[in-house]
Amino acid sequence: MNFLEFAVWGAYLVCMGNYLGAAGMGAEIKWFYAIQGIVSIFMPTLLGIVGDKWVQPQRLLGICHLLAGAFMICLFSVGASAHAAGTLPNKAVFITLYTLSVAFYMPTLALSNTAAFTILKDNGLDTVKDFPPIRVFGTVGFIATMWFVNCAFLDADGNFGFTLDKNAFKFQYTHYQFLVSGVLSIVLCLYCFTLPQCKLIKKEAASLVDTLGLSAFKLFKTKKMAMFFIFSMLLGMSLQVTNGYATPFLTHFKAVEGLTDTFAANNGTMLVSLSQIAEACCILLIPFFLKRYGIKVVMLIAMFAWVFRFGFFGLGQPDMPGVMLFVLSCLVYGVAFDFFNVSGAMFVDNECDPKVKSSAQGLFMLMTNGLGASIGTLAAGAIIDKYCEWKNFMVDGEMGSYLVDRVNDGWAISWYIFAGFALVVAVSFWVLFKYKHDPKAMGEIKH
C-alpha cells in the first residue's frame, strides 16, 4: 500500500514543473503546487470524518484513488491531444482536471496512515517501532517512479525505451508522467479492497460538532498541541518549495554556457531522487530519535535540516565540485522531511483519542500540506518570479523554455531567502514550544 501510495505521487510531483514550462504554464507552477495545499485545507478533514464514521478507511482510500487516477488519465489525454495538434493545452481544462485529481489524492496521505496504524494496532504491534520500516516502501515507490519518468522515453516512431540521453523525449518533460500516475492510482484502488478491515468504532449519539468531525479542533485547547500545529503549518511552508522548483532550477543550467551537458542539468529528476533515497534511510532512524529525544528535538532537527536543504541549493553548481552541494542538499532532505512528516503523524496518533484519529490526521494534513504548503508555495513563487523569469533558448537544435536568473544570482538569492525563513522558524520553535518528553509514553496504545 505504501509503495503504490507514493509511487502515484512520485510520477509527477518533482518533474511537473519541467512539463508546465514547456506547455506554456511556467508562470502558473506556484499555483499547481498551491492547489495541492488548498484542497488539503478541507478535503483530508472531510474525508477523515467519513473514515471515522461511515466508510472503513482502507475502502475510502481505494475510492479516492479511483477518482484521482481517472482525472489524472484525463489530464494526460488533454496533454496528448495538444501535443498531437502542435498546440498548447487549454489552461482552464488542464488546471480543472488537475485540481479534481489532487483533491481526491491529497486525503489519501492521511487515510493511508490511518489504515496502517489501525491494522498494526489490531495485530498488537507498536506503531513507533513497526510503522517506519513499512513507510520506507512508500519512499521506495516514490523513487521508482521518479527514475522511471526520468529515463523512460518515446522516439519519433512511438517506440518505448529507457535512456539518459539528454536529447530523448523523456517522460520527465512530457504529459506521459500523468499517465504513469493515473495508471498506478487505479492499481492501488484495486489493491485497497484486498487490505484487512479497519473496523469503525461504534459511537453514541453525538453533538453537531462531533458529527461534523470538528472534535479534532479541540486539540487546540491544549497549549502543547496548539503550538505543535502552528509550527507544523510554518514548517509546512517549506514542503513544496523544492518539489515545485528544484527540477526547473537544475534544468535551467541547460541554458547556461558551459553547463549544458552536465548530468545535473539533464537529469534533474534523477538527481533529486537522492532526496527520497535519503528519506528511505532516515525513516529507520525515527523510532530511536523519537523515543529517546522526543518530538521537540526531532522537529528541531527537521527544521535545521531545511536550512541546509535550501542553503546548499543556493551555493551549488551542476559541475564538479559544486554538484556535491546539490548532493548534500538531497541527503539532508531525508531528515528534513521524515523527522517532520512521519514523526508528526505518529505524534498526533499517540496524543489523540481513538475516536478522532482520522480527523486528527486530517487536521495535521490541513496545517502542513494545506495552509502551510499553500502559503509557502505562493510566497516562494512570488520570490522566484521576482528574481527569475521564463525564457526560450535554443539548446542542441531544440527550443526549450527555462526559468533563468532575472537579476544576477537570482536563483541563489531565492534559495538563501528560503533558508533564512527556515532558520527563523527553527529558533522560534526552540524557544516557544514547551514539551517534556516521556520515553515510555511514545508508542503506547491509548484507550
Report on the architecture of this protein:
By secondary structure, the chain is mostly helical. It has a single domain, classed as Growth Hormone, Chain: A, CATH 1.20.1250.20. The chain is 68% helix and 5% strand. The chain contains 16 helices and four strands. The protein has helices spanning 2-10, 16-22, 29-53, 57-85, 91-122, 127-151, 176-192, 208-211, 223-236, 241-251, 263-266, 268-283, 286-315, 323-351, 357-387, 410-432, and strands at residues 152-154, 160-162, 388-395, 398-405. A two-stranded antiparallel ribbon has the order 1-2. β3 and β4 (398-405) form a beta hairpin. The protein is globular.
Summarize the SSE layout with pairings.
Layout lengths: L1 H9 L5 H7 L6 H25 L3 H29 L5 H32 L4 H25 E3 L5 E3 L13 H17 L15 H4 L11 H14 L4 H11 L11 H4 L1 H16 L2 H30 L7 H29 L5 H31 E8 L2 E8 L4 H23 L15
Antiparallel strand pairs: 1-2, 3-4
Helix pairs in contact: 1-6, 1-7, 2-10, 3-5, 3-15, 4-5, 4-7, 5-15, 6-12, 9-15, 9-16, 12-14, 13-14, 13-16, 14-15, 15-16
Helix content: 55-70%
Mass-distribution shape:
globular
CATH-scheme architecture: Up-down Bundle
Strand order of the largest sheet: 1-2
Give the tally of structural domains: 1
Number of DSSP strand runs? 4
Enumerate the spans where pLDDT stays under 50 for 5 or more consecutive residues. 443-447
Kindly estimate the percentage of residues that lie in beta strands according to DSSP. Answer: under 5%
Mean pLDDT across all amino acids: 84
How many individual helices?
16
